[in-house]
Specification:
The chain has 15 helices and 22 strands. It is of the alpha+beta class. The strands form five sheets. Strands 4, 5, 13, 14, 15, 16, 17 and 18 form an eight-stranded mixed sheet that branches. Strands 1-2-9-10-11 form a five-stranded mixed beta barrel.
Length: 441
């Protein structure tokens, strides 16, 4: 079998890439080992993630599926009081902020919808497990070997091989690129399930994302999936999880009751409707993530921290960027360069590195972070949360977060000491994070 582009992974990133490639006149092959629908985590979209969905012409389909509409994110502090809210807003052509919405979704339904649509638009589909990249003598990619569902193997020849396998990090594990280097938040565990009977806000904000903060890398999420079901999860240090010596289910139930007063109020009864699952050590970086005839997209090369739901957006946005880069390569651009996709790699890094600074700022000084979001630079903070990070526009909110990361509380107390007196807790334990470089570049 021959194709211009082979995509390993049929999730939203792979399907998004396939649909954008088809717009460029390129017919790809999607390789997926799992049968959809299948369970997956990562159920909330940023504002710009909704923008990618709209760019694909899928808004009407999203509304038809009745995926919950998300108008923003509300974050509750440790006491369960004084939440801060970031709305979903877009920038008009004139550069003004305008209210819009994005979506929450049950990933089993959304992922199947995306894959089915990519196939319906013309992508070829192979049900099987990619086992190894096939290389030419000069080290460039010439194809991929696939173990088929019937147990046989098939070699698919291609000009470009794209890893969109998510946290499986297929090309890293095959040795084509480097092994993952653990990131700043690698020693965490996320334990999660779904519940019914949760208390939501009234009105149009009924299906917004809620985040409940306890302490450094210890928090919970609350993401509505349909009229009855809410995805709930707790992220904590791995040492804390181990110290409790509980089953995943018992740990999750107890944490949902104890982690935050506002969270426990919203869950008068904890009716779990899904198996309780866990993910360990999921903060990492793979570098380089592009090369001669290959690239990794989204979680296949970088995952920072799930707190603000950036993962799905980064994967889909990188897929959108990758399509014209792949078209140019197929037309001969940069073929003789050591890394033909170096420009795409730099563009991807420009966005995720900003998210790294944003998340580091939140965890190092969450109250200072709230000050920047609500008082100092609220409009620019909205841009960051929406996903407007893949550009060179100056963002004062981001610069403030970098100052927090570098100088800590001293910097922002000098900015507005009165705000500190009004909002900071009476007793605040010092918080430190490891901000050493993740991977040499």
């Amino acid at each position: 079998m021959k194709t211009d582009v082979a995509i390993v992974g049929g999730g939203p990133g792979g399907s998004t890439l396939a649909m954008f490639l088809l717009r460029e006149g390129i017919k790809p092959v999607i390789i997926e080992k799992e049968t959809f629908p299948r369970y997956h985590i990562g159920e909330s979209m940023t504002g710009e993630c909704g923008g990618v969905v709209r760019a694909l012409g899928l808004e009407e389909m999203m509304l038809k599926h009745r995926f919950p509409v998300k108008w923003g994110v509300k974050v509750w502090g440790p006491s369960g009081q004084n939440p801060w809210f970031v709305p979903v807003m877009k920038r008009t052509e004139a550069g003004e902020l305008q209210e819009t919405f994005t979506w929450q979704m049950r990933r089993s339904d959304f992922d199947k919808m995306m894959l089915d649509e990519a196939i319906a638009r013309g992508a070829d589909f192979v049900q099987g497990q990619a086992t190894e990249p096939l290389l030419k003598d000069d080290g460039s990619v010439r194809g991929v070997r696939v173990k088929m569902a019937d147990g046989g193997t098939q070699d698919i020849e291609c000009e470009v091989l794209v890893d969109v396998s998510g946290q499986a990090r297929w090309l890293s594990h095959t040795g084509l690129t480097n092994r993952a280097v653990l990131g700043h938040y690698a020693k965490q565990v996320a334990v999660f399930s779904q519940v019914t009977g949760a208390i939501r806000d009234e009105g149009k904000h009924r299906d917004d994302t809620l985040i409940f903060y306890k302490r450094l890398v210890h928090w919970a999420w609350f993401i509505p999936l349909d009229d009855e079901t809410v995805s709930v999860g707790v992220v904590s240090p791995g040492t804390y999880f181990a110290s409790k010596k509980e089953s995943k289910r018992d740990f999750l139930v107890r944490e949902l009751r104890e982690l935050n007063p506002e969270l426990s109020r919203r869950l008068p009864e904890i009716n779990l409707t899904e198996n309780t699952r866990a993910i360990l050590n999921y903060s990492y970086e793979v570098y380089p993530f592009t090369g001669k005839g290959w690239m990794c997209i989204g979680d296949a090369h970088r995952f920072i921290d799930p707190i603000f739901s950036f993962g799905l957006y980064v994967t889909m946005k990188e897929a959108q960027f990758a399509a014209p880069a792949i078209k140019a390569y197929l037309e001969g651009a940069h073929r003789d360069e050591p890394n033909p996709f170096a420009q795409h790699q730099a563009l991807a890094l420009s966005g995720v590195d900003k998210y790294q600074d944003l998340i580091d700022g939140f965890w190092s000084e969450p109250y200072a972070f709230a000050y920047l979001v609500h008082r100092k630079h609220p409009d620019y903070a909205v841009d960051l949360f929406a996903g407007r990070v893949f550009n060179n526009d100056p963002n004062p909110a981001l610069e403030g977060m970098r100052q927090i990361k570098q100088h800590g509380r001293k910097w922002w107390e000098e900015e507005d000491g009165n705000w500190w007196e009004e909002h900071a807790p009476t007793a605040s334990e010092p918080i430190t994070i490891d901000t050493s470089p993740e991977a040499p570049r």
